[in-house]
Design brief:
Blueprint (H helix, E strand, L loop, with lengths): L5 E6 H7 L15 E8 L16 E7 L9 E5 L4 H10 L4 E6 L1 H9 L5 E6 L22 E9 L2 E8 L8
Parallel strand pairs: 1-2, 1-5, 2-3, 3-4
Antiparallel strand pairs: 6-8, 7-8
Length: about 170
Amino acid sequence: MRATHQAVMVGEHTALVDDPQLTVREVPIDWPPIRVVLLHDAAELPADAKLFEQQTPVWLLAATDSRHQWPDFVQVFVGEWSPAAVMALLQQQGIQSLLIEGGSRIHADYLAAGFADHMIVYVAPIILGGQGLPAIWSDQGKAGTYRLVNQTKLGLDTRFELRRTSDVYRHY
């Protein structure tokens, strides 16, 4: 029986380029969140990825099936994974909270679909450009409006905490 009701998710590009662990460190917890990776082909994820170093649940949401033999704590779900489909699966599995850790495309998709109720945004005094990935902000969909809950200076950086101002629970 799974006691956790939380999940943390990254997209394919973040999983392959950053090789995240998606674990909680330095704070003891009884029930780690389900670690979710949204990707096209589960077989593209290397068997030695950091996700597999700890034997806590990993869910791979893939568009195509994988014949790879995954460890027992890994489940592969095959389907068409729009934000609404992912949220439906999580709800069906008893997950009540989803933290989208990264990347920019997945953030933009969930904002456009209206699934972002709480955001934490860090702003650094540096201008980046060139061939980087697109920003998360999108003028499409139902991104909604947010109110500033907290603002904290962290050295030169600033942390903004925002919450949706209206229609927070319209999807549930």
